[in-house]
Design goal:
two-stranded antiparallel sheet, 106 residues, 5 strands, 3 helices, alpha+beta
């Protein structure tokens, strides 16, 4: 794997299979239980605007949730580890909607 190879958004590996915190990007990963999903996702979608002056419009956030097929941290993290990586660091947004990972290839 070449230095700076991007395996997925937020997971940047160098030739040793690790990345510095400065390269950490966030992706939509749900950090809550399924029974909380409707309320949490609705709260997040409410942060979207209704016009082009905002970064993301509500309709775009709803589309992102519908089409992205994001998963929960408690499902994703064991898959990362089972696929030959160690999670060196993980950060989670306060609203439970985003996670960022620094991984090391084992």
């Amino acid at each position: 794997m070449e230095r700076g190879t991007r395996t997925r958004p937020g997971w940047l590996l160098d030739e040793r299979g690790s990345a510095g915190r400065e390269n950490l990007e966030w992706d939509l990963v749900y950090g809550f239980e399924p029974e909380e999903a409707e309320e949490r996702i609705e709260s997040w979608c409410e942060t979207g605007g209704i016009g082009i002056e905002t970064d993301w419009m509500r309709a775009e956030l709803e589309e992102h949730v519908r089409d992205e097929h994001s998963t929960f941290t408690w499902l994703l993290e064991p898959m990362i580890e089972r696929s030959g990586f160690r999670i060196d660091d993980a950060d989670y947004s306060a609203d439970g909607m985003f996670a960022g990972y620094v991984l090391r290839r084992l």
